[in-house]
Write a structure and sequence with these properties.
The N and C termini lie far apart (78 Å). A hairpin with a 6-residue loop joins strand 6 and strand 7. The longest helix has 16 residues. Helix 2 crosses helix 3. This protein is of the alpha+beta class. It has 4 helices and 7 strands, in the order E-E-E-E-E-E-E-H-H-H-H. It folds into 2 domains: 51 residues, SH3 type barrels; 75 residues, Orthogonal Bundle (Arc Repressor Mutant, subunit A), CATH 1.10.10. The strands form 2 sheets. The chain has a 5-stranded antiparallel beta sheet with strand order 4-3-2-1-5, with no helix packed on it. It has a two-stranded antiparallel sheet with strand order 6-7. It is globular and about 40 Å long. The mean pLDDT is 84.
């Protein structure tokens, strides 16, 4: 199971593996009970874990950075029912987090998600994106296309045979 295929669904607890997407929703498999079902996009929103960012005092960071810091932390995960313990845990593990904009419920969700990811042996890493071409190369190609298209076309005429 790849981290890049995992989604969170609004209104539903836990994480899901995206099996297939359709125009009106998606087929997902729960990481908790392994059940597969169709989720309508008219009722729910899907968030890829790769696209989730966390507020920090500097630039926002990807959720992967926070989860990796949590994994490497010597402290064990806090009890998800104790908001004070959760906040203290994140103050130690990821002190750059903006605690005014990241709510305790969000931190609680991160703790639950890490537990689920560990239980399912998911490697927490971003998928590699192909590098974009430099802009200069694209401009050179466009100039060549313009030069080719601006050349005058040769007219060809056909002669009628005399009868």
């Amino acid at each position: 199971m790849e981290y890049s295929k995992l989604v969170a669904v609004t209104g539903l607890p836990g994480l899901f593996e995206l099996i297939n997407s359709k125009t009106d929703g998606a087929i997902v498999r729960s990481l908790d009970d392994k059940s597969t079902r169709f989720i309508s996009s008219r009722i729910h929103n899907f968030s890829h874990l790769e696209s989730i960012e966390v507020y920090t005092t500097g630039d926002n960071v990807n959720l992967v950075d926070v989860l990796n810091a949590m994994e490497k932390a010597p402290d064990k995960l806090p009890d998800e029912k104790d908001p004070a313990a959760i906040k203290n845990y994140f103050e130690k593990v990821y002190p750059e987090m903006d605690f005014e904009r990241v709510y305790t419920s969000d931190m609680k969700k991160m703790v639950k998600w890490l537990e689920v990811l560990k239980k399912n042996n998911v490697e927490i890493k971003l998928s590699e994106q192909p590098e974009e071409e430099p802009v200069e190369e694209i401009q050179e190609e466009e100039e060549q296309v313009i030069e080719k298209s601006s050349k005058p076309k040769r007219k060809t005429t056909t002669k009628k045979k005399a009868e």
